Amino acid sequence: MGRRLVLVLAVLATLSACGSRTKTPSTAAGAVTGERIVAARADGADWLTTGRTYDEQRHSPLNQIDRENVSQLGLAWFADLDTSRGQEATPIVIDGNLYVSTAWSMVKAYDGRTGRLLWSFDPQVPRERLAMVCCDAVNRGVAAWGDSLFVGTLDGRLIALDRHSGRPLWSVVTVDQSKPYSITGAPRVIDGRVIIGNGGSEFGVRGYVTAYDARDGRQLWRFFTVPGNPADGFEGEHLRRAAETWHGEYWRLGGGGTVWDSMAYDPELNLLYIGVGNGSPWNQAHRSEGRGDNLYLSSIVAIRPDTGDYVWHYQTTPGETWDFTATQHIILADLTIGGRVRKVLMQAPKNGFFYVIDRTNGQLISAENFVEMNWAIGIDMRTGRPIENPEARYYRTGRPFISVPGASGAHSWHPMSFDPATGLVFIPAQDAGFPYFPDPDWQPAPMGFNTGIDMGAAAMPAIAEARAAARQGTRGALIAWDPVQQRERWRVQYRGPWNGGVLSTAGGLVFQGSAAGDFAAFDTASGRRLWTFPAQTGIVAAPVTYAIDGQQYVAVLAGWGGVWAIAPGILHDVSGPVRNISRLLVFKVGGTARLPPAPPFTDRPLDPPADRGTPEAIAQGAALYGRFCGVCHGDAAVAGALVPDLRYSAALDNPATWRSVVFEGALHENGMVSWRPVMDAAQADTIRHYVIRRAHEDRALAGREATR
Question: Can you give the pLDDT at residue 466?
Fold first, then answer.
C-alpha cells in the first residue's frame, strides 16, 4: 500500500510540475495538454504524440488484442492515399479521430472507427523542392496542442491547423528557403512551444532546432548544433567550446548537424533530448581538415525546452565521416542497473552501437554493438569513444573503405519500442555496407549531394559475382535487445533491410511491417510470428494502437519509399516488392474488410538505343550521374518504383528531349529541376551516354543469367 501511495504522489507531482509551465492552457473539451500527455502513460485509448508519450517508448498498455486472439485480427477499414511516394508517418489519435501526415507534407483526418475522411489539407509544396531533399518526399507525422495540429513541410514551413476542420491558423518559414533545407520530421510540443528541426546536411547547410509559440507562430528560441563563422560571434557558450573542435573554414560548407528526426522529453527533469545528424560534407578531410571531434555532430544533446539553453551532450561518433547520424529514435526509461534504478536514455544510432546513457547528466553507462561491424571494435568505457579501425578513415589512407554498417545505418529513422514488462527494446536493424571512395579533388557544388566522396565510384558494377555478393550480405532483422545485459534475446531475420518501425503492447505483442509487404505480430517473449497480413506494398512506417468504446484498433501507414527505395541501385529491391501502394490500414479483432487485388508486377525488357558514346564521355557522365542523379534515380542508373528508371527512357534516343528535361528543366513541376547550375549542355549529354551504356550492360548481364 505504501509503494502504491508513493507512485500516486509521484505522478501527481509530475502533473503539477508540467502544468506549472504550460503557456497555452485550453478549456475546450478534448484539448491536448502536457498533463494529458503525461497521464496517457496509463491510458492507451489515445495516441497523443508521435512516440505516444513524452518518453517515446512506443509501448501501449492496451491488451485486448493479445497472444491468444491476435490470429483473429482482420482489416477494419483502409483509406487509399493520393500520393505515391514513401509513407513514413506515425498517426496520432485524439478522442477517436486519427490524424496523419502523408508524402508531400499533406495532412488528413479520419474517423478512427469507420475510416470516414473528416478533412484533408495540402500545403502545396513546390514539387521542384524535391531536388533539395535527401530521401524522398516523406513526412513522419504531426503534433497536437490545445485544439491545434502542427506539421512541418518539405520546403521548410511550420503550419498550424485547426484540429476539427483542417483550417490553417498560421504558417511560418523556419529556414532560409534559398538554401537546401527541408523538414521531414514530426514536431514536438512542450508547454505550448512547438519544436522543430530540419534536414539538408548532404547538401551543405548548418543545423539547428527552433521553438515557436503554439498560439501565433512567434519564434521563442533557436539552438544551433554546430558553430558558424567565429568572426560573427557565437550564439551561445556551447558553440564557442564546440568551435575549438573544428578546423579550417568549416562554416563555408555549412557544417551539417541537422536535427531531422528524433526528440524525447523528461517532464520531471525538464530536459529535451535531441539527436544531431551528420557532417556536411561527410568527408571530414574536406569539412574540417580531417581533424577534431566536430561538436555537436552525431551527438545526443540535452537542452532546456523553455529557453533553448545547452545542458549536456554525448557524442556517439566523434569526427564523423560516414553519415553516422545520431538522429535515430531516443527512448527514455528507468532501469535497474547494478542494483539501483537509473534514469536512462537509450539509442541505437546508425553506427551500430546500442547506448545506455544517464539522462540526468549525459554519462555513458554501457554500449555494445547490436550488429556486426568493421569500422570499430568497441567503445572505450574510460572515454566513451569508439575504438576505430584505422582503415575506416578512408581520407587518411587514400584507399576506399567498405564500411559495415554503411551510410544507411545499422538502424535508421524507423522507430524502436521499449516494453517495460519484459525490459526489452525492439530494434528494426539492418546489415548493409557502403563503399567510401575518397575524392581529394572534390569541390562543393551549388546543388546536388555534397558528400565529399566519389559517389560515382561507389555505384554497383555490372558484374554478376559482385552484385550477388552485395545482395547476400545485405539483410534486415527485428532484434529484441536487453539494454541492461547489453545482449540480444531473439531475432526475426528478414531477407533485406528497410523494414518498418515497431509497436509493442501489453498484450505481449510486437507489431512491425516489412519491406517485403507483410504486416505482422510477434510474441514479445520469443519472437514467434503469430499473425501476418499481406499489405501489397512495403511498410516502413511505425504502427500505433488505440481504443474506441472498448474496442482496440491497430493502424499503420503502408507505402514503400524512402532512401532505400530510390538510391541503392540494384539493391533497392533486395527486401521485396518495388511497387508503391500508399494506404492507411486499420485492424481490429474480427475485422472483415478486404483490399482490392494488387496490380501485377510488370517486367519490361531493356531495349536501349545504340551505344555511341566515347569512353571519355561515358566516364564523365558516370561521375556526373553519381554525384547529381543517383540519389533519386538509383546507383548505376537502376531505379526503384518511385521515380523513372532512366535505362528505359525514350529520351535516350532523342538528345533534344534529354536536353529539355535535364538541362532546361521541362519537368521541374514534377521535381525534375534543371541542372544548368552545375553542368553545361554537353556535360548533360554525357549522362545520357552513360545511361545508355548501363542499359546495354544490364541487358547483356540479364541475357547471360537467363542462359545459366
Answer: 65
